[in-house]
Amino acid sequence: MTRSGRPGPPRRRSVARTLLVLLAVALVVVLVLLLLWYLLAGRLTTPGPGEPQVPGAEPPTSQPASCPDVFVLSVPGTWESNAADDPYAPTANPISLMLNVTQPLQQQFGPERAEVYTVPYVAQFSNPVAFPPDGQASYNVSRSEGAAKANEILAQRSSECPLTSYVLAGFSQGAVIVGDLAASIGAGSGPVPADRVLGVTVIADGRRDGTSAQQIGPPVDGVGAEVALGGLDVPGITMTGARQGGFGALADRTFSICAPGDLICAAPPEAMSLRNIPSSLTALAGAAGNPVHGNYARYVIDDAGTTATQWTANWAAGLVASAPTPAHS
After folding, report:
1. Distance of alpha carbon 126 from alpha carbon 130, whole angstroms
2. Which of 18, 51, 98, 121 could make an S-S bridge to 146, C-beta 3.0–4.6 Å?
């Protein structure tokens, strides 16, 4: 309007409308790009519940000759596997931490006693604030793939081999996957019955709450990064917090190993907090490469000088050695 109360010149009104339209279009473009970034980065998916157990159902008296007495499931950590790796002779990363556990077991037991299976999955963690993008799969995509493959092979073995027992172990991202599996099994909704699981060990578990599992090694302050950042949901990274209900029926046989200073499993509030998301994401993306996190093959957990991986290998071997020997047909 002019000072006299009359409408301004048509040209000025036209320019104002054009600017408003351009701003609206720009806002829509930005929102679309953000939505595409969010969707393309991948959503976190979890396996569905396993087959319900029939109460009072009599177990069979034998199982096929091809079935192992014990099935050992190992899930490597970030950058320690790939989707095409050989689950029985993994070579994706020759210095994968979990090889310190699986190789001794394969040397000690034949496949008929212990089938040692390393889950092959993408095992990556893209930094969401990296520019240009680092070209890796997002944490959501990687974790979802690892969980689906672990769940699938356990469900398959349980269907084929109803008397086989199970030992589960994982490191870092693999520890989150194994811990989630154990929680679902312990709640009665997993791919195998809880009474068939001999034990679970998670090393550097990102969902460690400090109370749900039996802690191996010196006391450690802090909680897992996913607990510290619980509720955070940005493109490619969904932090799921602590496991509600813990490990249920498996709580008495689930063990957790975490080294002081490892931001993945022992994140102090000042390092990772929802109050400072950009710096927390940067710390999270770099935590897997932290020297402490990669040092569990040398991290000593007792006065005898036993390392984390030695303890895990010995623990698993003891479970396999004392496991039942079902009849085969």
Report:
1. 8
2. 121
* Dist CA 99 CA 116 (whole Å): 11
Q: What is the DSSP string of 30-58?
A: HHHHHHHHHHHT-----PPP-PPP-TTPP
Return the SS3 of 314: helix
Catalytic residue among 81, 144, 262, 280: 262
How far apart CA 212 and CA 271 sit, in angstroms, is 23
138 as an active site residue: the answer is: no
CB-based contacts of 213, cutoff 8 Å, min separation 6? 179, 200, 202, 205, 246, 247, 251, 254, 255, 256
Q: Which of 149, 100, 104 is nearest to 123 (CA)?
A: 149
Q: What Cα–Cα distance (Å) separates residue 58 from each residue in 53, 62, 123, 194?
A: 11, 12, 39, 16
Among 138, 172, 184, 256, which one carries the catalytic annotation? 172
Per the annotation, the verdict on 62 as an active-site residue is no
Q: What CATH code would you report for 67-322? A: 3.40.50.1820
Query: CA of 98: how far to CAs of 118, 169, 171, 182, 321, in Å?
Result: 9, 8, 7, 18, 20
Check whether 311 has a pLDDT greater than 70: yes
Give the closest residue to 119 by CA, choosing from 95, 96, 139, 135.
96
Compute the distance between CA of residue 286 and CA of residue 168 in angstroms, rounded to an integer.
27
φ, ψ of residue 158 in degrees (nearest 5): -65, -35
- pLDDT tens-place string over residues 86-117: 999 999 999 999 999 999 999 999 999 999 99
Question: Tens digit of pLDDT for each residue in 31-60?
Answer: 545 555 545 556 677 787 665 555 556 778
Domain locations in the chain as residue ranges:
15-44, 67-322
Phi/psi for 126 (5° steps) reads -70, 140
Burial profile 208-225: b = 16 or more Cβ within 10 angstroms, e = fewer: bbbebbebbbeebebbbb
Q: Which of 81, 158, 165, 293 is catalytic?
A: 293
**Is 302 among the residues known to form the active site?**
no
Query: Do 309 and 298 contact (CB within 8 A), yes or no?
Result: no
